Amino acid sequence: MPETALPKTVPVCPVRGSVIYPTMVQHIDASRAISIGAIEAAMAGDKVILIVSQRDKDVDDPKGADLYDVGTACNVLRVRKNPDGTVQMLVSAAARVRASNYQLGDHLQADIEPLSGGLSGGVELRALTRELREKFDTVVSGGKLSAESVQTINSKEDVGEMADHIAFNLDFKLEDKQALLEIANVEERIRRLLTLLDTEQEVQAVQAKIRAQVKEEIDKNQREYYLREQMKVIQKELHGGDEEEGDEAEQFRAKIEALGLTPDVKKEIDREVNRLARMHPDAAEASVIRTYLTWVTELPWHERSEDRLNVEEAAQVLDEDHYGLEKVKDRVLEFLAVRRLRKERAERGEISAEEVNKGPILVFTGPPGVGKTSIAQSIAKSLGRKYVRIALGGARDESDIRGHRRTYIGAMPGRIIQGIRTAGTKNPVILLDEVDKLGSSYQGDPSAALLEVLDPAQNQHFTDHYMGVAFDLSEVMFIATANYPEQIPAALMDRMEVIEFNSYIEQEKLEIAKRYLQPRQLIQNGLKPNQITFTDAALERLISHYTREAGVRNLEREIGTVARKVARRIATGEVKRVKVTDKELERYLGQPRHTPETEGKEDMVGVSTGMFYTPVGGDILFVETSIMPGKGGLVLTGQLGDVMKESARAALTYAKSNAERFHLDRDKLDNSEIHIHVPAGAIPKEGPSAGGAMATSLISALSGIPARHDVAMTGEMTLTGRYLPIGGLKEKVLGARRAGIKHIILPKQNEPDINDIPLHLRASMRFHPCETVDQVLDVALVGGLAALETPRGETGTEVPVKAPAKRRTTRRGDGARA
Ligand SMILES: Nc1ncnc2c1ncn2[C@@H]1O[C@H](COP(=O)(O)OP(=O)(O)OP(=O)(O)O)[C@@H](O)[C@H]1O
C-alpha cells in the first residue's frame, strides 16, 4: 500500500510494550473491547488500522493522550476470533505515520499522516551500513538472537528495513524502540541505533564478567565440596573405615562457627582447621593443631557474668569474710561505687562502654598472711564474678605471661589465657599474686608483657603467642598483690593504686582467731562447736609463743593442729569434749617456739634500744658501744649493712663535733678504739633509722651517762644533728610495746603515723616526737641533755658495758630494717 493510498482517518489499535515497524508481518492478539472494536471497524472499512504503543502499559482504557503520536499504519491480512472472545489478527505494517485528532466512540480512531524522512544515500550511508552490520554481528555473536533471526536480518537489502528489524528483535527499552520508529530519516535512525548497540555491547561485557565471577564462585564451592568428600573417602580407606577421624575437622569447624568470632580471628583459625583436615590424624603435628583448636573452642569468647554492683551487699560480703581491715574495705567499696556510677552513665549513653572498665589497677601490699588474697576472693564474690589466681612468683620470661609460639615443642598459652580458660568467663577477677616476685631473664621481661595486659588501651587486643589471635581482656578486673611494693617494676607500679595492708596486732589476731579461724578449723577437722573450746588465754599464748608472723596463716595452722589432735582423742572415745587452756597448749603443740623479746632490765652506759621491722612484724634491737684504748678506729659488728655503717660514722662525727658542748674528752675520742655492736648477729640489718640509737649509745659510752632502758627510738640522723623520718612506725611501735617499752622516740615528721596505732595501745605509751638529735638525747639519757651539758669529772671509758638482762631470740631469715 503506497503511502499516498492511506486513508485519512483509521481505527486505532493500542498495543502495550511493543512497537511494529514497516514491512513486518505480525500477529497481534486483542482482548480489550477497545482493540476488538478497532479491528472490527477496520474489517468493515478498507482494512487499514493504526497500531500504536501506549506510553504506560498499565492503563487499561487508553485515550488519545495515553498513546504515542507516531505509530504504524498496517493492512489487516486476516482476523480470527477465538472461542474465549479474544481476537487474533495478522497485519502487514505499511508506513510510519503521525496520528492526530484521536476520537473515542465505540473504538478509538485518529487522523494519520505519513512521516516524511527519506534517504540521502552516498558514502556516508555506505559507511553507516557497514558499521551497522559489523556492530550487529558482534552484538549477536554472544548468541543473543536465534540463528534464524540473524539470518533474516542479514538478508535485508534495504538498510532502513534492516535497522527496523534489529530494533524489533533486540531487547531495547520501549522508549528507545519508539524513538527509532519516530525517526523517518534512515541515516539518522542508523546513528541512533548504533549508540543503542554500543550500550548493548557494554551491557553484554559487564554481564559476561558477572557471569564469570558467579561461575568461579560456584566452581570454587563445588570444587571444595568435592575435594572434601574425596578426602573423607580417602581417609576412610586409609584408616579402616573410621569415619570419626575424618569428621574431626568438621566437628571443629561446627564448634568454631558457633563461637561467633570476628572475621580476622576466624580466618586465622579456619586456616588451622583446614591444615588439620589435610593431615594424617596420627601425624605429630595433627595433635599439636588439635590441642590448639581445643584451646580455641574452650575460651570464653563471649561468655560473661552479670556484675552485681550493689555497694551495701558488697560491704556485707566483705564484713562476713574479714575482720577489721577498715581502710581496705572502704577503698574497695569506693572502687565499686565508682564502677556502678560509670556503668549507669554508660547505660544512659553518656560515656562509652569501654570507659566503665577503666580505672587504676588495685595492688594490695603487705606482709604474708594478712588477707590480701582472701579479700580479693571476697571482691569477686561480692561482684558475682568468677575468681582466678595467677601466681607470678618466679615468672622469669615473657612466655610465662604470653605463651610460647606454637612452633615450640610442648608450647602452651601463657598464664593469662590459662586463667581466662579456668574462669570460663571473659570478665573474671584475676588476682596477679606476687607481682613483686617477677623475675627477668634473657628471654624477655615478663613485666613488659604484663604492662600490655594491664593497659586498657592495649588489652582489648591482647595476643598470646600461642593463640596467635587477639583476645579481649578489657572486661577483666585485675588485682595485684605484693609483699614488697618497692620491688614492683616501676612501669607497672605507675598503673597501680597501692592499698596497704598492715600486720595485725595481737588483739586483732585474737579476734580473727575467735571469729574466723577457729570456726573454720573446727569444720575442717570434723568437730562440732561444743566439742572443743579455746580460752582467750590459750589463743593469746598461741599467738605470742607459737607463732611469729605479721598475718594469721601460721596461727590458723596451729589452731588446726590442736583441733586435729583433739579430734583424735574424741574419735577414740578418750574424751567427749575438750577445753583448751593456755596450760594445755604444750600437750598438743610441744614446747613454745618463740619467747618474745623484752626490754632491758636496767639503765646502762653505752646500751640504747632501737626498733626494726621485718615482713613478720616489728621488734626492738640493742645498740652497744664499747671504748678501749687504741688508735682512734671505729669497729662495727653484728652484720650491719652499708647504710647502717654510715649511720654509725655519722653518729661518731656528730659526737666529735659536739665534744666541747657535751664535755667529751677529746683526747680519748681521738686515741681510743670505738666498737659498736648490734647483737643478734644472725640477722642482717640495714637501713638508716637506727641513727638515733647509734648516737645515743655512742654518746652514752663517751659521756658515761646511762641510757634509759624503757625508751626505744627510731629515726635517721644527719651530721648536723637533724632527726629525719623513717618507715614502718606502726610495726616498730607494736614490736616495742610487746617488749614492754613505754616511751617511744620518733622523728617529729612521723607524728601523724601515731594515728595508725590502735587507741588502747597508744593510751598506755608515751610518744616523744623529736626534730634534733639533742632532743633525742634529752629523752634517752638519764638526766637528759642537762646532765650531758654539765661538766663531769673523769667519766666514760672505764664504765664497763653490761649486757642487757635478756637477749632476743630471733629466727634467721628476712633481713631486718631498722
Ligand atoms: N582480717 C581477716 N579476717 C579473717 N580472716 C583473715 C583476715 N586476714 C587474713 N585472714 C585469713 O588468713 C589466711 C591467709 O590470708 P591470705 O592468704 O589472704 O594472705 P595474703 O596476705 O594473701 O598472703 P601472701 O602475701 O602470702 O599471699 C586466709 O585464710 C584468710 O582468710
TrEMBL record:
Region entry Disordered, spans: 791-818
GO function term, MF aspect, one: serine-type endopeptidase activity
Keyword Protease recorded: yes
Domain Lon N-terminal: 10-201
Subunit structure: Homohexamer. Organized in a ring with a central cavity.
GO cellular component term, pick one: cytoplasm
Induction: By heat shock.
Protein EC: 3.4.21.53
Protein name: Lon protease
Binding site for ATP: G366, P367, P368, G369, V370, G371, K372, T373
Main function: ATP-dependent serine protease that mediates the selective degradation of mutant and abnormal proteins as well as certain short-lived regulatory proteins. Required for cellular homeostasis and for survival from DNA damage and developmental changes induced by stress. Degrades polypeptides processively to yield small peptide fragments that are 5 to 10 amino acids long. Binds to DNA in a double-stranded, site-specific manner.
Organism (species): Deinococcus reticulitermitis
Subcellular location as annotated: Cytoplasm
Alphabetized UniProt keyword annotations: ATP-binding, Coiled coil, Cytoplasm, Hydrolase, Nucleotide-binding, Protease, Serine protease, Stress response
UniProt record, GO biological process: cellular response to heat; protein quality control for misfolded or incompletely synthesized proteins
Coiled-coil regions, chain positions: 183-216
Gene this chain is encoded by: lon
Residues of the active site: S689, K732
